[in-house]
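Run log, item B.
One chain of 61 residues. Sequence copied directly from the ordering sheet:
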Amino acid sequence: MKHKLRNALMSESGMTTAEYAVGTIAAAGLGGVLLKLLTSPEFQALIWKIIQSSFTFLFIN
């Protein structure tokens, strides 16, 4: 009986489910931040400026 109780208390079954839940929440939060960042006009202007600079550097030598 003592052995079964110790095994039940020390068992880590179910931990992977909790880890998946935390990982899913973290991924959803990161996705939300990236979506907000990518749809902001300031970030879009920055990306557009970087792309224009890259093409100017590549084709005007």
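Observations after the first pass:
- The chain has one domain: 15-59.
- Helices lie at 2-10, 15-38, 41-59.
Flagged for discussion on Thursday.
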